Amino acid sequence: MTRAGFSLAKVSSPAANEAIYLDHHATTPVDTRVANIVFDMMVSSFGNANSVDHVFGETAAAIVADAKGRVAELVGSEPDNVFFTSGSTEAIRLAISHAIGPTRASPLRIALTRVEHQALIDTARLAERLGLAVVTWIDVDDRARLVSESLHAALESGTDLVCVMAANNEVGTIYPLGEIVPLVHRHDAAILVDATQAAGRIAFDAFGADIDYLILSGHKIYGPKGIGALVSGVYEASRVYGLGATHDATPNVPGIAGMGEACRIMLSEGGDETRRIAHMRDRLQTNLTRQIQDLVVNGDQENRLAHNLHISVPDTPNDLIISRLRKKVAISTGAACMSGAQSSSHVLRAMSMEDGLQEGALRIGLGRFTSETDIENAAAEIIEAVRDVQNAMAGKEYE
Ligand code: PLP
Questions:
Q1: What confidence tens digit (pLDDT) does each residue in 63-97 have?
Q2: Which end of the chain, N or C, is surrounded by fewer C-beta atoms within 10 Å?
Q3: Low-confidence ranges of the chain (pLDDT < 50)
Q4: What pLDDT shows up at residue 296?
Q5: Is 30 exposed, middle or buried (0-12, 13-18, 19+ CB in 10 A)?
Q6: For the CA of 228, the nearest atom of ligand 1
């Protein structure tokens, strides 16, 4: 796929002769069906959805309305509850600013799990520094599962907003929202669910409509970057702390249309896709476990995202493994925001993982266009890279 001479006909899934992409928690390639729609919205149906005096604006407005329907359907909510943002980070900030409200007599009491995404943790901490919130932490166990007593203690001590992600972006653990959402409401608190990694990959229909603030992002579901949504039945732009929300601005119609299409595809194909990917992930896990001595599989193996495989090669620096794989297999040491940051993952620390396992932690994320061949080739490359690093560490000569 070249930049010059770009044409829709040439848009294809990642080329087979490039490095194998196994970092789908960081971002996903845009599905060609989505790209086609985005392209069309840019060059043909380019109207401003806020200028509905003519057919151009009307078409754009209809497309935005349709996309709201698709997003709502994916997460079991209503179209009127969908507010588009530039992504999950902005949606998280908007939700917390709304929970704080325009004026407050006392700080918002927020309880959040220790494994939330840095975007949420940073927002909550900032609110605390500004005197707008007080933060309580909910503990997780060694598989990143919620410690039930910790959640109960937070609720019983008085909490206004509980933040529990739908699934973790590093180790893939899925949280039992079907139980957590009603529990939080019984304590008269609101719940914010960061569904960035889980939307389209787990079913939300049983509880989606009950979630006060649900967050998702286009680029994690084969849609464009720079588009996401806050899905909320309680959100009102006039009740946001600060100088108001951005969604009255000219909507990002191409992005919104792309996100709508990405949700449509996830809805119609997500079930089969999840099964296919889980099967490949399991094969990769078996292969690596057999070939790499003392390999540890992290997270909750009974309840994790199908495309997630998080492993630790004990006492083997993950940055050395990754650097050997750099041009061959794209995997990561953790969350996107951690890359290159040279600090350990707050998720792995919250799981009380021992240092040697944190040091050798690798996150592998499969996706829609991952093939069986990719998995075989990636396994061989990862095994070789690990051996290479271990031999080098043992002082042996290596080619
Ligand atoms: N929440 C989770 C769980 C994520 O994985 C990410 C991205 O990695 C974000 C939030 C931030 O999403 P965005 O890039 O759309 O701002």
A1: 999 999 999 999 999 999 999 999 999 999 999 99
A2: C
A3: 1-13, 15-16, 336-341, 398-399
A4: 98
A5: buried
A6: 15
Q: Report how far apart, in Å, the C-alpha atoms of 110 and of each of 19, 132, 151, 378 are.
A: 42, 10, 12, 42
Q: How far is the CA of 215 from the centre of ligand 1 (A)?
A: 9
Please give the C-alpha separations between residue 16 and each of 34, 75, 281, 291, 370, in angstroms, as whole numbers.
Answer: 20, 33, 19, 25, 10
Residues 305 and 398: their CA atoms lie apart, in Å, by 36
Given ligand 1 and candidates 27, 71, 88, 123, which is best to mutate, with the most ligand atoms within 8 Å of its CB?
A: 88
pLDDT of 244: 63
The arrangement of strands across the sheet holding 308-312 comes to 296-297, 308-312, 361-365
- C-alpha R_g of the chain: 22
Is the Cβ–Cβ distance between 237 and 230 less than 8 Å?
A: no
Is domain 270-393 classified as CATH 3.40.50.720?
A: no
- Residue 107: exposure state from Cβ atoms within 10 A (0-12, 13-18, ≥19): middle
The pLDDT assigned to 5 comes to: 39
Question: String of b and e for 212-222 (b: at least 16 CB within 10 Å)?
Answer: bbbbbbbbbbb
Two tokens at 302?
């009974």
Look at domain 79-247 and name its CATH class.
Answer: alpha beta
The span from the CA of 395 to the CA of 397, in Å, is 7
Domain range annotation of the chain:
79-247, 270-393
- Tell whether ligand 1 has an atom less than 6 A from the beta carbon of residue 117: yes
Residue from 175, 66, 49 nearest 116 by CA: 175
Per DSSP, the three-state class of 385 is helix
Place of tokens 């914010």: 192
Please state, in angstroms and rounded to a whole number, the distance separating the CA atoms of residues 294 and 69: 48
pLDDT (0 to 100) of residue 368: 98
Q: Is the CB of 119 under 6 A from ligand 1?
A: yes
206 Cα to the center of ligand 1, angstroms: 23
What is the reported pLDDT for 2?
34
